[in-house]
């Protein structure tokens, strides 16, 4: 493999890719310029130019592409509508964003390790997948593990972790979803908490998110487990066969979200909140869950509606759940629940 080493005074772009059907294999791309030595420049390890299709990057190490002054920099960046980019068996470290796509289609990231980053993987475009990969945030700068803004995204068998303890008001999120048709399956999400600011979530949705499935995934040591809070919450969300453990606040929290299913999930050591909280929503199912409280869990399942037509809770099913050792109510229906 080839080694590309940028010097400590002018380091900016490691490798620029223009054209189709190009393979980068078993290389090392290293930047020696200090993160604080930049102005507004954007350092990039490997840049795939707009319109460059069928690019393969395998077995390659990309290191130290961070401008800490302007909070920018990418390990691997796919610009524009690149099609069929493959990143396999790579190691990316010391960047602001580890791997990012701006409008890519059918981007496939597999068996790759991303560490010491502010944002691990950022996906825009459509039909993108992340499989069998590990994202570990920087212990001093890390904010987001995987950001999903593109439609039809699948994240499978990934480990998304943070060990950062000190924050300056940021909200750390393991997987942040603001798109349509996203599936998270068989993942481990842990450590996303800003305990001083009472902020953070293992998985969080933003305005416009819909058709989300999270199954057989473990979420632990986060402030909240699954969080959907906005004026227009996520819709058509299914949480199935997941495990929520050692959380500071509510394990599952939905507000203004419709068509929500929480089924066959297990909750242990939930913090000073509810295992499942849903407010101002319609078409809700909470079934087959096991909720094991401790001295801090307030309620097992908490459904709440407000005194307005749009916010009254309608059409809900709570069935077949096993709830034990909570300090308050096992099932609590509050306000206007019809």
Structure description:
It is a single chain. With 338 residues, the chain is mostly beta strands. It has no helices and 38 strands. The chain has strands at residues 3-6, 13-17, 22-25, 28-31, 44-48, 55-58, 61-63, 74-78, 86-88, 91-93, 97-101, 108-110, 113-117, 119-123, 129-131, 134-137, 144-148, 153-156, 159-161, 173-177, 180-185, 188-190, 201-205, 210-215, 218-220, 224-229, 235-240, 243-245, 252-255, 260-263, 266-268, 274-279, 282-287, 290-292, 299-305, 314-319, 322-324, 331-335. The strands form 3 sheets. Strands 1-4-7-10-13-16-19-22-25-28-31-34-37 form a 13-stranded parallel β-sheet, with no helix packed on it. A 13-stranded parallel β-sheet has the order 2-5-8-11-14-17-20-23-26-29-32-35-38, with no helix packed on it. The chain has a 12-stranded parallel β-sheet with strand order 3-6-9-12-15-18-21-24-27-30-33-36, with no helix packed on it. The N and C termini lie far apart (65 Å). The mean pLDDT is 92.
What topology does this entry show?
Elements: E1 3-6, E2 13-17, E3 22-25, E4 28-31, E5 44-48, E6 55-58, E7 61-63, E8 74-78, E9 86-88, E10 91-93, E11 97-101, E12 108-110, E13 113-117, E14 119-123, E15 129-131, E16 134-137, E17 144-148, E18 153-156, E19 159-161, E20 173-177, E21 180-185, E22 188-190, E23 201-205, E24 210-215, E25 218-220, E26 224-229, E27 235-240, E28 243-245, E29 252-255, E30 260-263, E31 266-268, E32 274-279, E33 282-287, E34 290-292, E35 299-305, E36 314-319, E37 322-324, E38 331-335
Parallel strand pairs: 1-4, 2-5, 3-6, 4-7, 5-8, 6-9, 7-10, 8-11, 9-12, 10-13, 11-14, 12-15, 13-16, 14-17, 15-18, 16-19, 17-20, 18-21, 19-22, 20-23, 21-24, 22-25, 23-26, 24-27, 25-28, 26-29, 27-30, 28-31, 29-32, 30-33, 31-34, 32-35, 33-36, 34-37, 35-38
């Amino acid at each position: 493999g080839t080694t590309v080493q940028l010097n400590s005074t002018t380091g900016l772009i490691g490798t620029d890719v223009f054209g189709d059907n190009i393979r980068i294999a078993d290389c090392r791309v290293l930047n020696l310029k200090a993160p604080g030595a930049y102005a507004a420049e954007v350092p990039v390890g490997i840049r795939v130019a707009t319109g460059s299709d069928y690019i393969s990057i395998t077995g390659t190490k990309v290191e130290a592409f961070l401008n800490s002054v302007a909070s920018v920099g990418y390990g691997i960046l796919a610009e524009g509508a690149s099609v069929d980019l493959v990143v396999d068996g790579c190691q990316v470290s010391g960047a602001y964003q580890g791997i990012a796509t701006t409008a890519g289609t059918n981007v496939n990231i597999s068996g790759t390790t991303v560490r010491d980053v502010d944002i691990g993987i950022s996906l825009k475009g459509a039909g993108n997948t992340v499989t069998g990969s590990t994202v570990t945030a920087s212990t001093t700068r890390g904010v987001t593990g995987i950001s999903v803004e593109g439609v039809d995204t699948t994240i499978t068998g990934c480990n998304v972790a943070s060990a950062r303890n000190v924050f300056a008001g940021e909200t750390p999120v393991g997987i942040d979803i603001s798109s349509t048709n996203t599936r998270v399956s068989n993942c481990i999400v842990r450590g996303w908490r800003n305990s001083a600011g009472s902020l953070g979530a293992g998985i969080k949705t933003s305005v416009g998110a819909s058709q989300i499935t999270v199954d057989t995934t473990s979420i632990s040591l986060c402030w909240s487990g699954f969080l959907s809070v906005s004026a227009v919450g996520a819709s058509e969300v299914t949480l199935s066969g997941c495990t929520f453990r050692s959380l500071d606040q509510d394990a599952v929290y939905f507000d203004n979200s419709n068509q929500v299913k929480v089924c066959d999930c297990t909750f242990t050591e939930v913090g000073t909140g509810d295992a499942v909280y849903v407010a101002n929503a319609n078409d809700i199912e909470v079934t087959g869950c096991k909720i094991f409280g401790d001295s801090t869990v307030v309620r097992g399942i908490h459904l709440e509606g407000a005194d307005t037509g749009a916010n009254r809770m309608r059409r809900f099913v709570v069935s077949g759940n096993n709830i034990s050792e909570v300090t308050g109510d096992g099932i609590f229906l509050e306000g206007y629940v019809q």
